[in-house]
Amino acid sequence: MADASTAPAATAPAVLAPGEPAVPTRAALRADFGAHFEAHYQRLVAQLFAITLDARIAHDAVQDAYSRAWRRWDEVARLADPASWVRHVAVRSTISGWRPALERLGLRRPALPVAGGVVDERTRVLLEALYRMPLVERRATVLFHMADMTPHEIAELEGVGPDRIRARLGNANRAVVEALADVLPAVLAVERPAEDQGVYR
């Protein structure tokens, strides 16, 4: 289980969605939370798995984030994008702690995910490319391509400047361009305008 005690506090987006009841009932909150969990859980776990390359850590991080979301769901549910809040908390929980610290220092590497016959060849190649990336570049790449976050949003989450995130994205792109240039958008199921390919704004 991700260590909630060491995870930095997440800063929730400030914009509230219009039309939500001011004081929803407990039953309504439970139903809304359950629907959100069912709709977003697997996608968030997939994003955390692509960052951590560890299924257990990915599930633990998202489950812990949803546990924290439930304790304040009356507030989180009224945000413009509750899934973004959950993702923020989950990703932050994987940035702190001894595992990512050791990986940043090059003293620990996650095990190379074994796809076997479960996924297609393109996804297997993508997982191997992500495995070869430094953790900070892998995280930026996943958040940019899979979560559709901008460099500014990633920079805010990471606590660094947007230029550093653009540099990380550029490094990651150059590292895999020959193998994945034609398959990366398809594998990640993200469509970006042609003029935006390789341009990190």
What is the number of E strands? 0
* Proportion in helices: 55-70%
**Approximately how much beta-strand content do the residues carry?**
under 5%
Specify Rg, calculated over alpha carbons.
17 Å
N-to-C span:
35 Å
Helix-strand pattern, N to C?
HHHHHHHHHH
Q: Could you give a short account of the major beta sheet?
A: none
User: Poorly predicted ranges (pLDDT <50, ≥5 residues)?
Assistant: 1-16, 190-197
Global shape:
globular
Secondary-structure blueprint:
Elements lengths: L25 H27 L2 H17 L1 H4 L5 H14 L2 H7 L16 H12 L2 H11 L5 H8 L3 H19 L3 H5 L13
Helix pairs in contact: 1-2, 1-4, 1-7, 2-4, 6-9, 7-9, 8-9
Structural features:
201 residues; mainly alpha; Arc Repressor Mutant, subunit A; 10 helices; 0% strand; globular; disordered N terminus
